[in-house]
Amino acid sequence: MIVAGSVAAAVAAGGGVTAWLLTRDDDKSAAPPPKPDPTTPAPVPPGPPTAPEPPTAESGPYTLTMWLDKLFTPGVDQAKTNTDLAAALVKVDPLGTLRSEVQEIADPSKLDTALAAGNGPDLFQVDSLGLARRVKQGTLLDLTPYAKRLNADAWHPAARAACTVDGKLYALPMDVYAPVVVYDKRLCDPAGFVVPTTRDEWITQLDKLEQHYASDPKFEALHLVGRAWQTIAACLYANGCEIAVQQNERWAGRLNTDAGRAGIAFFQKLQSYSSAPKNVEEYKDPAGTITAVLTAGKAAMAIQPDWVVAELLRTSPETARNLGAFPMPGTTAGKAATVGVWAGVLAVSAKTGHPIGATNLLRVMASSVWQERWANENETVPALGGLTTTSGAANPARAATLTALAQGKPYPAAPGWSAVPLKDFAEKVLGGADPVVAGAEQDARIGGSFSEYRP
């Protein structure tokens, strides 16, 4: 992607399951019910009434406006996309026309202001991390009634979960991101590196690399800055830490738990293999972008989404050709660790005058044809499972990403979601703070901020 550093920068600046319990007040004076016959299957309780299928066409001609974010669409030929999407929309709804615009939405307030005023686009592209905030603001159309039409059951489960808030679907994922371990074979092979299948094996291989290159002061077995929040989150998730949980209308932090402390200890272990600063963001890394770090040929590994490799295929093909990748290993052999997943998504304004038309356009975008085209143009992982894209076939990290997605889970769907508590937790512990104290501080912060949102 053209935005190798930009996506990381934008994200760095940055559901629960509802249980149903059906009870009934029985008349205490009534005769006791007969004892069930163990040979007779228990009756199946009636399910909720089936909602009627929403209409499939608007009542009259309409025009949709869609804002695409330049950050997420570096490979899109805008003129051709407009023409082809408009033609595809007419096939499913002859009354519809489309006007698609690429916007600079680095500042989300531009979109928020337009949506709140009712003069924003009918559809727009954002990342999944901000969906819960916009749900709380009331600016998103609930897409749950259209889930079948959008083929949502065929999406990667983690991608669907990333688009779900309080059990309801609010967006169509177009590309999905998960961290994987990228390694440079030019450095790893001479040291006898073997791709690890467990966490312990990974540590053994990192130790082997450090020993092999002990005479090179510039060598890093793993390049990892101290505030790399997606890796921090992966270490927390891999150790069973939920980061934050919803309790009624409030959110509570879970960093100051046994799982949270184990997770941050694992991150601390990984970061010890790096000479990168412990107190900087990834996009402020003094060594430069991660593509520059890998091109320099002194870092044996990095933990990144697979678009980093796609970027290197353009900017440094020799480096890209010598890269391999594997999912972050779990504690059980052959089972990847749980990592966080987020997505670039398309959502519909709650104030659109054409909800049926807008969801018909999403139906087009959810098709295998458009999911594959989008993934190829932008060199990303499509949300629709089972697609073999040409860009993915050329990317050595794609297979690792798909394995990671199978074990992935979304970040907390909190209106006030922020990665800052994770980054501060890690920085303090890396700086020598007591994990109990640091975890308690950030849990208090999560409790105060995750439930809030900007009006």
From TrEMBL:
SUPFAM superfamilies: Periplasmic binding protein-like II (SSF53850). Residues 31-55 have a biased composition (Pro residues). GO terms for cellular component: ATP-binding cassette (ABC) transporter complex, substrate-binding subunit-containing. Keywords: Signal, Transport. InterPro entries: SBP. It holds the Pfam family SBP_bac_1. The keyword Hydrolase does not apply. GO terms for biological process: maltodextrin transmembrane transport; maltose transport. Residues 23-60 are annotated as: Disordered. Belongs to the bacterial solute-binding protein 1 family. PANTHER family: MALTOSE-BINDING PERIPLASMIC PROTEIN, MALTOSE_MALTODEXTRIN-BINDING PERIPLASMIC PROTEIN. This is ABC transporter substrate-binding protein.
